[in-house]
Amino acid sequence: MSIIKVAILGFGTVGEGVYRTIQSHAAEFTAVLGKKVEVAAILIKNKHKNRDVGEEVLLTTDFDEILGLPQLDVVIEAIVDKEPTFTFLKKAIARGCHIITANKEMFAHHGKELLDLSKKNNVSVGYEATVAGGIPVIQTLRQLLKINRVSLIQGILNGTSNFILSEMREKKQSFAESLCQAQENGYAEADPTNDIEGFDAFYKAMILSRIVFGEEPEWRDVERQGITSITSELIAAAEKLELRFKHVASISREDGYIIASVKPVLVGNENPFYHVEGVENAVNVHSDIVGRITLQGPGAGMFPTASAMIEDLVYVCQSRPAERNAVKITAECIGSSKTVEQKEYWLVQGLAESSGVTLVEEVSEGILLIEAAKKDLDVLAAQQPGICYFSILGEIDLSVLNKAAVTVI
């Protein structure tokens, strides 16, 4: 029986998960592919550290030693940072290997170049694990996009931020306390900036945009906001309105332009994101035929991420050249775009009096529910730097308030 030889770059949580899964699911690989899958080499940082791998596996700190193997079919990358990862994967493609990556930052910056290079070398790129951990978002979109026109895709794409917001609400903790808990549980790095400031979700959103619409927005035009401005007081005020904070990435096409944002919003219990808690991720796709579908599952961890990479391993080995790396460019967005910006409901903190917006309710001291157009709030924020304001996705039930009357402040 012929053999597929695999190299794994990195043997941290994800890399080890991939190795263990290949070992434990050998029979399934053979049944699906008609070939055995063997790990030929693993790129490591420390040669002296003891690792529980087979003696036949080459353990090396030198990537060129891996490239020099007599047979090498697939390179699975499970390390961090843009470099040297990007260089390693370019070399692997030039060698004629399929590549699989979980590196969202690197792929957001260099994915197009890797995909173009793979086409020239007649190999495939798997990148399911770059977007939503163990959720098969990309594989689903590859199927959905064959006929359906997607108008909007939204997602909770960062499990760390979602965990922190869940802990703050459920345990009545501060942001700092919940972040500390996330770090103790291994969900947040010692430097959590990428997660809590929205960079991680931003990179994933750009990858999704490329898949769904065939292009990305200008990065500088994307509204990116993390969760550091959300306080215990805001969480409590949202609960009075029967709303929950969620950090949501949103991508759509309007008048030929890609519009994207990554920011905290408020959702009610009719929203599919309302019950997405802890480190779970979720993606909601709006399209013209199937309507709305939601995918939900673990966004991180050894085996959820390994699962996505393992499914990619099957995908790159099975796909025909014409199918490889294919994306659908959606030519139009469903429905007409808004010519006049509509007023929305917002939860606002730090708004001065005489601001000219419609007050619906003072939810708690200094925290207001208002109705306004976003452009008007943007102007106020420029004039009053202390303002924090959060949009509400979907409808809000005003009957939960003490009154439904509105005034202008």
From TrEMBL:
- Please, which domain of life does this record's source organism belong to? Bacteria
Q: Which GO terms describe its biological process?
A: methionine biosynthetic process; threonine biosynthetic process
Which residue range or ranges hold the Aspartate/homoserine dehydrogenase NAD-binding domain? 10-127
PROSITE patterns cross-referenced by the UniProt entry: HOMOSER_DHGENASE
Name any one GO molecular function: NADP binding
EC assignment:
1.1.1.3
Substrates-to-products reaction catalysed = L-homoserine + NADP(+) = L-aspartate 4-semialdehyde + NADPH + H(+)
Name the pathway it acts in: Amino-acid biosynthesis; L-methionine biosynthesis via de novo pathway; L-homoserine from L-aspartate: step 3/3; Amino-acid biosynthesis; L-threonine biosynthesis; L-threonine from L-aspartate: step 3/5
Q: Which Pfam families match?
A: Homoserine_dh, NAD_binding_3
**InterPro entries listed in its UniProt record:** Asp/hSer_DH_NAD-bd (IPR005106), HDH_cat (IPR001342), HDH_CS (IPR019811), NAD(P)-bd_dom_sf (IPR036291)
Q: Where is the Homoserine dehydrogenase catalytic domain?
A: 136-314
Sorted UniProt keywords: Amino-acid biosynthesis, Methionine biosynthesis, NADP, Oxidoreductase, Sodium, Threonine biosynthesis
The record's listing under NCBIfam families reads: PRK06349.1 (NF004976)
Family designation: Belongs to the homoserine dehydrogenase family.
Q: What is this protein called?
A: Homoserine dehydrogenase
Q: Which source organism?
A: Neobacillus mesonae
